[in-house]
Amino acid sequence: MSHFKQTLEGRVALITGGARGIGKSIAENFVQSGARVIIVDSGGDIDGRNPDPDIVKDAANQLGESAVGSFMDIGSTESAAKAVALAKEKWGRLDIVVNNAAILRDHFIFKARPEDFDEVVRVNLAGYYHVLSTATPIFREQAKAGNPEAPYTWGRVINIVSTAGFYGNYGQSAYASAKNGVIGLTRVAALDLARSKVSVNAIAPFARSRVTEIIVPANEEQATYKERALRIEPKHVSSIVNWLCSDQGQGISGQLFGVRGREVFLFSQPRPVRNFVMESDAKPESLAEQAKEHFEDAYTELVTDLESFNSEPVL
User: 93-116: per-residue pLDDT in tens?
Assistant: First the structure.
């Protein structure tokens, strides 16, 4: 029996991209913790092509009666509404949303196809929005219906993001743009839902997944990163998701976490680090002088997330 048993007893969770990898690990953890889950997945390849309903069905069957598989592309308002409705129809409520579905279509920006960019953003960013716009009214209704002596405080949202969204990585203009957008979506949703006591957080995972498996190293350092990343089990990510979705996670909202093996990071979020006041008729020469004086030692280094996190993980 899992030591997480009872932490999510009676709760209902919707997990997009839940049939494989990190999403499946989260679904397994939730069921072991007493929750019931809706696994939403297209069963497709990492680029979003070749959908396969059997993958979704098999993932749900492995979890038994506490799981239902929903074979669909989550990147539209209609599919998101169907997924949320399924949770209500099956178990009468919805308490947790984990947005994890993602596809990749990597190309250097000078070789990229606009249609690939659009598709990645549709799934990786718009899909998250569609799920939240449909699910959060339910959270608010449940909060309003709560007993004043025992108020409902269980609304939880976890958005899975990537350090590529704020570090960048070669060829990932679409993926990084979408994931950075999800960080902004997380902050806004956290603000919008604060009065309803709904917590919304983002997690950047480092773990073995289809994303790490398809990394094509651009240098020796990135090759080492990939080798290390493939040794990291996704179970550690699901442990942090469980914590944030439990009673113990109440009140933590709008935050950006990272999980790499047993290491847990709390990331800073963009805030001004320096400033200067330019002249009213500023010329490039004077701006260059002021920037050199105030900014030169504070510019962000141009490195990828793969270089920045290329050290031995704590397993």
Answer: 999 999 999 999 999 999 999 999
pLDDT interval class at 226 (50, 70, 90): confident
Asked whether the beta carbons of 259 and 236 are under 8 A apart, the reply is yes
Q: State the pLDDT confidence band at 150, using cuts at 50, 70 and 90.
A: low
- pTM confidence score: 0.92
Strand 12-16, strand 263-266: pairing:
unpaired
Over residues 112-130, the mean pLDDT reads 97
Residue 266: per-residue pLDDT:
98
Whole-number average pLDDT of the chain: 92
pLDDT band, very low/low/confident/very high, at 208 (cuts 50, 70, 90): low
C-alpha–C-alpha distance, residues 260 and 37, integer Å = 25
CA gap 124, 295 in Å, rounded: 34
> How many domains does the chain contain in total?
1
* CATH code of residue 182: 3.40.50.720
- The answer for residues whose C-beta is within 8 angstroms of residue 158's C-beta and 6 or more apart is 96, 97, 98, 99, 201, 202, 203, 241, 244, 245
Residue 308 counted as domain residue: no
Residue 4 predicted with pLDDT over 60: no
Spatial separation of the C-alpha atoms in residues 60 and 48, rounded to whole Å:
20
Catalytic hit among 167, 175, 225, 299: 175
Which domain, by its residues, includes 258?
A: 12-270
Residue 176 lies in a domain: yes
175 tagged catalytic: yes
Torsion of CA 9, 11, 14, 20, to 10 degrees: 0
On whether the CB atoms of residues 263 and 48 are closer than 8 A, the answer is no
Encode 189-221: b = buried (16+ Cβ within 10 Å), e = exposed: bbeebeebbbbbbbbbbbbbbebbeebeeeeee
d(CA 54, CA 42): 10
Q: Is 1 a member of any domain?
A: no
Asked if residue 188 is part of any domain, the answer here is yes
Pair 78, 84: CB distance under 8 Å: no
